[in-house]
Amino acid sequence: MTDYGHDLLFGTFITPAAQRARQVVDLAVTADRAGLDLVSFQDHPYQASFLDTSTLLAFAAARTERIHLNANVTSLPLRPPAVLARAAASLDILSGGRFELGIGAGAFWDGIAAMGGRRLSAAQGVTALREGIEIIREIWDTTISGEVNYDGQYYSVNGARRGPRPAHDIPVWVGAYKPKMLALTGAVADGWLPSIEYLPRGADSIPELNALIDGAAHDAGRDPAAVRRLMNFMNVQLSSAPRGLLNGPPAAWVDQIVDLALRHGISAFIIGGDDPSITQRFGAEIAPAVREAVERERTPAR
């Protein structure tokens, strides 16, 4: 069993469809009112049918009160890291400390290139992402004096001013699936944010992938528990009988999520589907039951 001991988070993954803009924002408000912790949107700037994610995050932050927001995940090749750092800090300040940074090395390279981005190989993307994360954190760090100078292979800044400082310590959650990206996650990230549908063997893959993150964290001199494990679940359904992972009655959802938390160390559960009724029940009924069950199991160990 691998329980990293993090507090549990529950959230939604909303499709940023431009033709349903009002419903998109309403779903974020529904998640906020349902007591969920996170609302997230995919970031594919080359997708013409989607709202721009950075604009949507700002608008949704203004329409909500307590829920935290993140891109799931930011496409770094189309959002230069120094500018992304300032945008993230600005949104965090304006929202009262409610922004989290999900980030990825990039995918769909034809689309990225079509939008003027640089086409990279998988290995190059990993290096570029590491450089981007380092620049972002340098821009945020106003505890030291002096400008930011960074000469990387893919990203450079020369004499950039530091700040603004975010309203809270924004965690960096990396979308990762392959060994090199998992190693980067363990070495430098604050969280791992994949979708379970894209794991090679679904939930059965988690122990192996966790081990790769943990090993990289150890090699970097970090506690593996410093890396929160989050998970997207895109194909969810509430139904009368269990039919699979997060496809069944609420009690089955609770049992499955508790198992993922205590046996696999997943501590953030983000559901897709764009169904307001599921969002409401997830926040009002399922999340509290999971928290109670996990706390009950953790208490004897403490």
TrEMBL record:
Protein name: LLM class flavin-dependent oxidoreductase
Pfam families (UniProt xref): Bac_luciferase (PF00296)
Molecular-function GO term, any one: oxidoreductase activity, acting on paired donors, with incorporation or reduction of molecular oxygen
InterPro entries, sorted: F420-G6PD/mer, Luciferase-like_dom, Luciferase-like_sf
Alphabetic keyword roster: Oxidoreductase
Domain Luciferase-like stretches: 17-230
Statement: the UniProt record of this protein carries the keyword Methyltransferase: no
SUPFAM superfamilies xrefs: Bacterial luciferase-like
